[in-house]
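go over this chain:
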Amino acid sequence: MQPQRFFSRILLAFTLLLAAVVVGVDWIGERRIEAFHREEVLRRLDTASELLIDHATALLRGGTEAANDGARIIEHVHKSGLRATVVDAAGEVRFESDAVLPVQNHGGRPEILAAAKDGRGMHERTSATTGVPTLYLARRVGDAAAPIGFVRVAADLLDLEDEVTGMRKTSVVVGFGVMLLALGVTMLLSRWFARPVEALAVSATRLADGALDERVHVEGPVEVGRLAVAMNRMADELRGRIRTLQTARGEVEAILRALTEGVIAVAPDETLLHMNDAAARMLGLAKPLGAGSTLWRAVRFPQLENALRAVLRGAPKQAADADSPADDGRTLHVSVARVSGEIGAVAVLADVTDVRRLEQMRIDFVANVSHEIRTPLASILGSIETLADHDLDEATRAKFVAVAQRNSERLMAIVADLLELSRIETEGDRMQTAPVSLVGVVRSVASALGSAAERKRLKLDVAAADPERCTVPGNRQRLEQVFTNLIENAVKYTPDGGEVRIRFAVDADTVSVAVEDTGVGIPQEALPRVFERFYRVDPSRSRDMGGTGLGLAIVKHAVRAHGGTVSVKSEEGVGSVFTVTLPRG
């Protein structure tokens, strides 16, 4: 539908209002004139019935003058242009001025019935005798207790209708003339009202097009002038806010250009919103891509593409290392997070080549040192065993041999754990996986450690769970290492008569296994460091129990290699809860 102009709306509104007024005035005038003429006819009927009441009484009672009375009635009604009827108490017509007797009984006529009840009755209908619209008025003759009959006078309404029709034609002509005159005045008024509003509309359009320096100057009513002032103030405020936003945007862009990390923002429809210079360099582009372009058409980077699409579809934050698409041997860390609003997701690219190289050097160093010290330690252990044959006091020899053996075995355990940790870190995401039921792994480990729990009279409780729902892609050997370390620690650090509970929790994406004990607990300040290598909350107690200080580090790295997380909650003297959360697929 075509939008209407303000002038057209005002003109249409005034035209409809004028039409309604003219039609209303014509209708009211017609009703008033019709009512006036009807009242005149009714007064004539009242007067005629009063004049005829005596003649009708004489006629109904009979006598020598009855014929004369009938003639007088005819004379009266003919002069006034009316009809007269005399009806006896039984409803029989005794006299009719315009019809030949006998005629139908009139006792059931509405005006006769009303007159019998109230002394006077009136009714309007089409006459059965003349066939024209007629107004009847009847009066009771005689006492109310014993009436002798009724006198009725009637007047046809054809003249009334003719007069109303003539007046209607006149009012239509006059109304049409008034409408033409009023329309001319309305057009002038509409133009006067609409001109300042249209000027405001033109100025508002220019402001919307960006001409914020334009001033609105409109002559018109006070209200329109106030609106113009308000529009000028709005333009000033809007101009200030735009400048502030432009300044803030420039500052943000300057910060992003100065960052060494690459930043890429994409909209929910995967179109590019922003890319800084560092991101362009890392992706091997000559310059940043412009807003609205599609990243995948300019550079092939599957890891970044998959991470962004996953986050845009509702996946949690994505983070992973990937080889640079520039094919320059660099390693990029890709971190993608969802952002509410018009920005769908933001990716941060960091060059971690040197960091990963140092980490690999550390891993290799630990592996090499462990490998190098294993052989000498084995030789020392053999030498100590040989020393048992020298001519020493048996008790002393036995004491030193036992100490040497115990420490050698401990060093061997450390070396074994270091080698295992190195293998886990080396495998990383290249670790071979297959569907593994965590319920089966936990129950197998709990069964193997059952005798240790029984010796301390511990209750080792594994909650019931559905093996199918608790199945994850993983390496069974590594998962057994994880839960062996956790459950074995829980058994070690729980006093006799305590309890170790293993619980399972499954949701749409993950499976969580909580190992809860009623042991000695861990101080709050130590919780952030319990997964560090060789960190011990109580070094003397850990050594006495045969710990290497690498068990929880192995747990952390093995869980991380599965794409999961491990966390701990603890309270001294109450117990600890270690929770392993792994993705279901």
The longest strand covers residues 133-142.
